[in-house]
Structure prediction request, 640 residues.
Amino acid sequence: MNLEQIYHPVKPGLELVEAKLAEISSDEIPLLSQLLQYALLKVGKRVRPAITLLCGKFYSYDLELLVPMATAVEVLHIGTLVHDDIIDNADMRHGKPAVYRAWGKNSALLLGDYLFSRAGSLATTTENLRVIRRFTETLMTISGGELREGSQTFDMASARDSYYKWISDKTACLFVMASECASVLSGCPEEQVQALKDYALNFGLAFQIIDDILDFVGDPAVLGKPVGSDLSEGASTLPSILYAEKYPKDRTIHAIIVDHRKDLVPLAVEKVRASGIIDDCRSIAQEFSQRASLSLDKLPDCDARRSLKALVAFVIERNR
Amino acid sequence: MNLEQIYHPVKPGLELVEAKLAEISSDEIPLLSQLLQYALLKVGKRVRPAITLLCGKFYSYDLELLVPMATAVEVLHIGTLVHDDIIDNADMRHGKPAVYRAWGKNSALLLGDYLFSRAGSLATTTENLRVIRRFTETLMTISGGELREGSQTFDMASARDSYYKWISDKTACLFVMASECASVLSGCPEEQVQALKDYALNFGLAFQIIDDILDFVGDPAVLGKPVGSDLSEGASTLPSILYAEKYPKDRTIHAIIVDHRKDLVPLAVEKVRASGIIDDCRSIAQEFSQRASLSLDKLPDCDARRSLKALVAFVIERNR
Prediction:
């Protein structure tokens, strides 16, 4: 299934999300409008709104609640990207210059703050306290997780655990929140809310691992960033961790992370590519993807379930 | 009345706010804990929590609701300061290096995001939808307002109106939200909620005008920043606006704001000081202070009302 087929069950909902994003992007403050349009419109694959709507489609599919919710999730996500790109010195995002590159760091910082608040305000329109609470806490997990990562030294013994904790906080947590909020809003029984959260957690982990693989083997032209960007920024992701585990005497990764030897990044990328480690990483992503898929078996069979299963398969195959 | 006397009716509540802030500042992520302690503890005069508690003291003074609310207001406020200092290149805050100076820009950016989320989460514990909605929207007003200001050209005809809109968004808006949330949580009748909001708006405007006056006439050692910082950052505040209105042929202010002639800042400061404009600014702040005080007459006479009146008088007299 391609993405259009996967999204088909929630197509009208996704169109309403786009309309909502366009509505948000029109503000009486001209600079704010321009920033919002640049950051929010015609960017990305809308994976998070799609998952939100799909998770809300098993019981009462109330678009009055689910469209603001799905929009809130996307706006929060984009807010974190706007700030992340400042932190990571990223050049490109969604095939164009990152917001801070195009509009300056100060505007990007304020835009991120605005988006967080806007997202919270959208989530509040659901008037569901559990949903609002979960939504509000999510940015704590994401930003706190980044601070945890920032304070870590390169300790091989705990590297893999730290990595999973990190990608769980920075990536999977948003999917988990989206699945919980959507299923709660649709009146899903608690056991199935939990099953959708399990799906979302494993989906998010698989999604991020593939992202981290692509940083080693992806096409820079397609990704819009150079190969080895994570290592250059001092982040050891699954491929470099597995490499360092397999070849403990090779200090290349260690020298990059600990001694900031950025000149060694191309060599490390070559070594990881030649080592067969990327296949190991794909297998691990595949495992998370299977767990995600399995947890859906607790939910009624329907077009949304088929799409969620196809989506995690699609994510594993993606090359951008 | 000194600040201790003014705060007396809400002293036990303020102690609970301090305890809450200390509780928040202890996190399992070491770097996050250090950042939180640096940013949240033993800083500032806690004017916003005090106003929150005082506004909640006219009817049902329920500290179970008002302490999280007052803490949320302070945490949100400090989050905006952490980000503002990055934007303004500020050296000092609360008598010590700004968070980004002491811990780096990336950590400061993430800390701000964390604080926004933490504040929202605290506000959510009130379980009052009107309160949560108002709280959530506030950061939109603050960050949107900063983006409006950033996109403005120096237009004399609209300068004063733009200034009031700007300080209303960036400063008064938080006081207004605090007063509304606290009075709603205490079961205040709607007409009196409105009166407290009027108080808070005028209080906030007076508060910011005094801040802007001190940027011209304050003691740099007491303020922790050089005289003329606002002009140096390209911000025209009430003193420079009144000066440019009074002396339309003098292009000093214009040259600083439009042509970025920072070398002219000391001259502009001297001219404003010598012009008598500062007294005009004080009279305007005094007017807002009187309006604030007057609006309280719609509320029952009690220790909280006396403190709120004394607080706005105190703010007008402050030198830091």
